Amino acid sequence: MQLNQHDLPSPDKPLRSPLRRRVIALMAAAGGTLLGWGARAGTAGVISVADKARSVIRPADFGALGDGRSDDTAALVDMFTAAPSGSVIDLGAKSYAVYGSVEGAREGDAVPLSSTLRLIGKSDIAIRNGTIFAANPGRSAAKRRFPSTLTIDGCKRISLTDVTLRSKGESWGDADASAKLGPEARRVFLAQNGGHALVVIRSENIRGTNCRFELCGSCASFYVCSSDDVQLTACYSSP
User: Fold this and answer.
1) Which of 9, 10, 41, 199 could pair with 92 as two cysteines, CB 3.0-4.6 Å apart?
2) Which branch of life, at top level (predicted)?
3) SS3 state at 232
4) In Å, how far are 122, 192, 221 from 79, measured between CA atoms?
5) Is residue 45 one of the residues assigned to a domain?
6) Residue 103 resides in a domain
7) What is the pLDDT of residues 51-75, one digit of tens each?
8) Residue 138, domain extent
C-alpha cells in the first residue's frame, strides 16, 4: 500500500490531523510506506527533497503540544506505536514532557507496558530534532521504579539525530531489579521500570548523532541490552 505525492493535499488545504493519523495507522498495520508525504514544521503538505520518499510523522498529528509543560505521554505513545517502518519521526524542534502523572513504584510495575514510549519491531526509522523528557525531574529519596523515557526494542536501522532524551533523575528507575529475570521479562521490565533516558534492547544497527541522554535513573541514562552495532557520534550521556 502506497500513497504518493499526487494524493497529497495542497499546502493551502493541509490534510486534517485525524485523517492523517488514520492513514498513518493503516500504513503501519499494512507494513507499507508513505511516499512523498513530507513536511517541515509550519509547512504542512510541502515536500522536501530529503523526505520525498519517506513518510514524515509529527507529534502534532497525534495531539501533542510540545510546549514543555503539557503532558504529551498519550500522544507520543500513539505516535511511536503508529509510525511505520521506513518513516521519519520529526519532533519539530519542540520539547515534550511525558510521564507527568507517574508517581513511581516500590514494587510491581510503574506503568502498564501500553503506557510506555516504545518503538518495537520496526526498521529504517529516523528520529530527529527535538526533546522528550520525564516531567518534574529531581532526585528520589528512595529508589522507585519508573519508565524509561524511550525504549527501542527489537528494531533494525534506527537513527536519532539532534535529539535530547531525559529521564526523571537519580533513583527514579531500578534496572538492577531485572537482573534475575528471563530475557523476555527483562526487556519489558526495562521499558516499564528501568528509568533510562534511552534503552536499546535486542536491536541492531542503531545510530545516534549529536544527541544528549541526560539524567541517570538507575544504571545509566543510555542503556544497551542484547543489541549489536550500536554507535554514537558526537553524543553526550550522563554518567
Assistant:
1) 41
2) Bacteria
3) strand
4) 13, 18, 23
5) no
6) yes
7) 556 799 999 999 999 999 999 999 9
8) 99-237
